[in-house]
Amino acid sequence: MSIRNLDDLLAEGVSGRRVLVRADLNVPLDKQSGEITDDGRIRAVLPTLSALVEAGAKVVVCSHLGRPKGAPDPQFSLRPVAGRLGDLLGAPVHFAEDTVGDSARSTVEGLADGQVALLENLRFNKGETSKDDAERGAFADQLAAFGDAYVDDAFGAVHRKHASVHDVPARLPHVAGRLVLREVEVLGKLTGDPERPYVVVLGGSKVSDKLAVIEALLPKVDRLLIGGGMCFTFLKAQGHEVGTSLLEEDMVETCGNLLERSGGKIMLPVDVVAADAFAPDATHDTVPADGIPSHRLGLDIGPETVAGFAAALSQAKTIFWNGPMGVFEMAAFANGTRGVAEAITKADAFSVVGGGDSAAAVRALGLDESSFGHISTGGGASLEYLEGKTLPGIAALEN
Ligand code: 3PG
Ligand code: MG
Q1: Structure pTM?
Q2: Mean pLDDT for each 10-residue chunk of the chain (399 residues)?
Q3: How far is the CA of 17 from the centre of ligand 1 (A)?
């Protein structure tokens, strides 16, 4: 890989230099309390930040959080993240109330060697996500003014052609951070020549989100196990009634085609947990996948399916998993995700968990993170990487 990395920058010496780090601190927040419910993405960027702090850099961190619409919106403030980042680093993080305004300028100017600042949410500025090159470029100019060098450690955002990811590296000496480097190395193993059998488990709610990756993976994998909300569109394509389950009517035909072309590689649920409402205390039963009552919706895969998926996983030498098997946030519908996750940890295979949601599920279910080969911080990014797409953030580092 022709990408320079953090070690190259450290070798040049960063003491007293301002280093702008793009991180992906887009962590889930509790809707009521606003508290961080999973800090995996903050932890993931610590190796890069600590190395820069130790080397005496003035570290300026920037990130997005959620999807604000190009203007300040308090519910998407990074302030709570600054607090947690400081706790984890063991040193205060100076928080700027804006991204490139007066507060940001004085915060950056006030940094001593080895100190860390976090700028307010990048997406409070229209230029960050603008499709207009000039508008993005103008914002990138303002951001780039805060650094003498740029480190991209925001793996979760490398698939976005955004100013902080795509345009800033064109303006500053740039390197990949430790996290980006590791993610690319691990995912590269899956796109290269994975040890077989190679089994992929896909879940999540929408087929339309996963269509490109299914197309790209089908020729490469030995088995593709499909659960989560999207399995119902496949079940419908097989001619089954799915009650009030999540269904993408306009994708039924596409799913039918995929099943026909898959050469039997696609495994679908044979039973599902069907509930009378989308609620933690809803009445529910396990029913055969071809017998979902018309007034019920499937919220998890059933135990027979878990056993079948686990058997396929136990044979695997390489596993990639993206997307929960059911509504794991509700205890009654978490067994599918837990069962599949446990089967992955038991398999004698190199396993990669891709996706903010699946990674959060691993932690929320109390599973041992170290029993997986790698837990990616990127959802969309890891999928697009596996699709073989050019990722704007990676391409920008190569130039
Ligand atoms: C993610 O959570 O997938 C990344 O942080 C990217 O966020 P986005 O999908 O809002 O661009
Ligand atoms: Mg996303």
Answers
A1: 0.91
A2: 91 98 95 91 97 98 98 97 98 97 98 98 98 98 98 97 98 98 95 95 91 93 97 98 97 97 96 98 98 98 98 98 95 97 97 87 90 94 93 95
A3: 29
CA–centroid distance, 240 to ligand 2, in Å, is: 31
Q: Is 380 in the pocket of ligand 1 (CB under 6 A)?
A: yes
SS3 content of the chain, % helix, strand, coil (to 5): 45, 15, 40
Q: Following DSSP, what letter does each residue of 270-335 receive, concatenated?
A: SEEEEESSSSTT--EEEEETT---TT-EEEEE-HHHHHHHHHHHHH-SEEEEES-SS-TTSGGG-H
Q: For residue 239, report the distance from its CA to the centre of ligand 2, in Å.
A: 31
| CB 62 within 8 Å of CB 21 | yes
User: Are the CB atoms for 176 and 151 separated by under 8 Å?
Assistant: yes
Instruction: Give yes or no for residue 160 CB within 6 A of ligand 1.
Output: yes
**Is residue 356 within 6 Å of ligand 1 at its C-beta?**
yes
41 catalytic residue (yes or no): yes
Protein residue whose Cα sits closest to atom 7 of ligand 1: 157
Of 221, 246, 172, residue with least CA distance to 17: 172
Q: CA angle 62-176-25, nearest 5°?
A: 30
- Token digits for 335? 């067994």
* 380 is a catalytic site residue: yes
